[in-house]
Design goal:
heterodimer, A: mainly alpha, B: alpha+beta, 29% strand
């Protein structure tokens, strides 16, 4: 089904936070190039999907979101705390 | 391992427990931490000694939210704990989120401290995350039976790549038992009650009736509802899905969306503001949000305010503009106030007195593009509710681009 609009917003926020915490994703806060931001985010989603053996779609599908919602360790999956 | 593979340059490593969680007895915390260290010392030359004052290599503490490092905790769920790679100062330290519920058991109602501590101490010794499902260093918490817990081979390979195997000949075998199957996973959501299905009296499996053709002029429906901008038409076990995103009508079954729901709904409607669809069958109803069936259903329709004489409803439709839901039963209808969650006074009323020209009983009802559509047999009636005016009559399947 389509995702409920406000739910979609919330999921996007959760995913950004997750990728920032664990996959070194940095959103350009005032970027003029939204498309570039989205494609970088898609790359990070693919990286996370690859780590967990999910289909590497680069999209925020339900399986990927469910994985992001699982309780976990706070250490990043791609680098250590600096 | 972490970048540059930091490790302790000695075999005797000290640890100190700085504070305790109120969720557990202190003795249980001591034991969980000690067992976690023992897991790693059994497969390496490392020896761990607890100290009770001053600076230890590995300082263990419980804290919530911001706790003095750059990585604040996030409240219940989400991040459970974190730890730093070997090094001076904060290096090696392990922090546990006090907003979690810590336990010495393996239950759904809390996180097993031994399991999480064993994982975090893996970081304190220099291991990073593993993507091997079932390994201790897998980033996601997996509640497994902790009695005679054994490290996964992947964990052993990792730690021995940093420190080598244990020296004593009688140390525990480095070959891991097969990873324990999780005794219980955290269900993503409470399992939905499986609904009693009518068992066929004779054993011969009954062949489900064929799906009628989309453009069959005699096609009728049991129930119709919108769902997040799409429209679902129900008949028996079949669903026709019409989406503004695709031109084709998709053919599905109820069980493909909601496996534990029964076939043959009497009515269905969506309260879009709550992202909720309600399904009715006989004197019960269910609520779903997307694919998820809300827990605590089915409920009796009397919960909505129907008299006990009403044993099933024919059709239902929600009016987004007035926040009212209309329920149709025989030649009468009720109006339900979604804000107050109660039936309105002065109902039921006769359908004929408010909806001229509509033949009842009504099989299904739908609100779309500001109009109401009432289905009776293979016909549907388009009604302008504001002017209570019948606009036109069409075939029930006119939505399928026949």
């Amino acid at each position: 089904f389509p995702v409920a609009p406000e739910k979609e917003q919330k999921d996007m926020q959760l995913a950004k936070k997750y990728l920032e915490n664990f996959y070194d994703f940095k959103e350009e806060k005032h970027s003029l190039f939204k498309a570039k931001d989205l494609s970088r985010m898609a790359d990070k989603i693919r990286e996370m999907q690859s780590f967990f053996g999910l289909e590497m779609t680069g999209e925020l599908n339900q399986k990927t979101l469910d994985m992001m919602k699982q309780p976990r360790c706070g250490i990043p999956d791609v680098r250590s705390y600096s | 391992t972490f970048p540059y593979s930091p490790t302790w340059k000695k075999e005797d490593v000290t640890y100190r427990i700085l504070n305790y969680t109120p969720d557990m007895l202190q003795a249980d915390v001591d034991e969980a931490i000690a067992r976690a260290f023992q897991l790693w010392s059994s497969v390496t030359p490392l020896r761990f000694t607890r100290v009770y004052g001053g600076q230890a290599d590995i300082m263990i503490s419980f804290a919530a939210g911001f706790h003095g490092d750059f990585y604040s905790f996030d409240g219940p769920g989400g991040t459970l704990a974190h730890a730093y790679a070997p090094g001076s100062g904060i290096g090696g330290d392990a922090h546990f989120d006090e907003d979690e519920n810590w336990t010495k058991f393996t239950t759904n109602s809390g996180y097993n401290l031994f399991l999480v501590a064993a994982h975090e101490l893996g970081h304190s010794l220099g291991l990073s995350h593993s993507n091997v499902f079932g390994a201790l260093m897998y980033p996601i918490y997996m509640p497994v039976d902790t009695r005679n817990y054994q490290l996964h081979q992947d964990d052993i390979d990792g730690i021995q790549a940093l420190y080598g195997p244990p020296k004593e000949p009688d140390a525990l075998p480095t070959k891991a038992f097969p990873p324990q199957e999780p005794t219980e996973m955290i269900p993503a959501e409470a399992p939905t009650p499986t609904l009693p299905r009518e068992e066929p009296t004779e054993i011969t499996p009954s062949k489900p009736p064929q799906r009628p053709d989309d453009c069959d002029p005699h096609l009728t429906f049991d129930a119709i509802t919108t769902l997040r901008g799409e429209t679902l038409f129900f008949k028996g076990s079949y669903v026709w899905r019409k989406s503004p995103y695709f031109s084709e009508i998709e053919h599905d079954t109820i069980s493909s969306f909601w496996p534990s729901l029964i076939d043959g709904f009497d009515a269905a409607y969506e309260v879009d503001k709550r992202d909720r669809v309600l399904f009715f069958k006989d004197d019960q109803y269910w609520a779903v949000s997307g694919y998820r069936i809300e827990s605590g259903f089915p409920r009796p329709i009397q919960n909505l305010g129907f008299p006990s004489s009403v044993r099933r409803i024919d059709a239902a439709v929600h009016d987004q503009s007035t926040k009212r839901t209309y329920f149709f039963v025989g030649n009468k209808y009720w109006s339900y106030n979604e804000n107050t969650q109660s039936m309105e006074r002065g109902y039921p009323r006769k359908i004929a007195s408010d909806f001229q020209g509509i033949v009842h009983p009504i099989d299904a009802a739908l609100q779309k593009n500001g109009y109401f559509y009432f289905f009776h047999g293979s016909n549907q009636y388009e009604v302008d509710m504001k002017r209570k005016k019948l606009i036109r009559t069409m075939k029930s399947n006119s939505w399928f681009n026949c």
